[in-house]
Amino acid sequence: MDKYPVGVFASIGAGLGVRLEVVKELGIHSVQLCCPHKEMRTQENARDFIAKLNDIGATISVVFCDFKGESYATIQKTRETIGLVPKETRAERKQEIREIADFAKTLGCSRIGIHIGFIPHETDSDDYRDLVGSLQELADYLAAQDQAFHLETGQETADGLERFLSDVGRENVFINFDPANMILYGSGEPLPALKKLGKWVRSCHCKDAKWSAEPGKEWGAEVPFGTGDVNAKEFFKTLKEVGYEGPLTIEREIPAEPERQKAEISQAKDLIEGLKREIFGVE
Ligand code: MG
User: pTM value?
Assistant: First the structure.
């Protein structure tokens, strides 16, 4: 695979990300797929989706978990509903992750992305131990089918995530680094975090944001890539410094405004292509 392909977060059916038609129109050939819900994960849909991807010459770099009942409406809602952390849904979501991994395998994708949620900070608590054990169990399930887990950054500080990854201790658990999320959630300056976590980073999101007045309490604001507090150029320099060579996947989550979303993704693509030449020395 070429180094540093420009990618975009995409979906089939419901879910975050742009439609494949838009991927085609934008001339992008790498997608991260927001995994469709259970009823859509049929063999027939998989075949149909693969045919569409082949038609536009695109490949899937990561299949992302998306669970019913999740809400990013506020930081508090995120805390209560996202990923594997909420105890009430942990068992059923663990089972669903296995099913998503199987569906990804059908699609020929070996990487599963997930927001696991706000990891408890009491590392000697039963809850923390159960979460570590859950990740180990799932990582082993993925390893048996040559797949890896990519945990998305956002809810944790770099130190918190480093500790968690060390406790999980599995060789197929990596990071999907989203610099904007560190700002949106108020969990630390993204570029020092990237330097610290670089050895685990195997995929990333080109997304941007502005800090809120009360980081960690109120959301920051998501803005088009290159216009926020991430500093796109320094972000790419840091990716280079940590030896990253994977896809540069644009994420712009404004599904209610599809035309604006498409225009801003197109602008992000132009910006990334310029920075690729300048910083990575590749077309
Ligand atoms: Mg992201």
Answer: 0.96
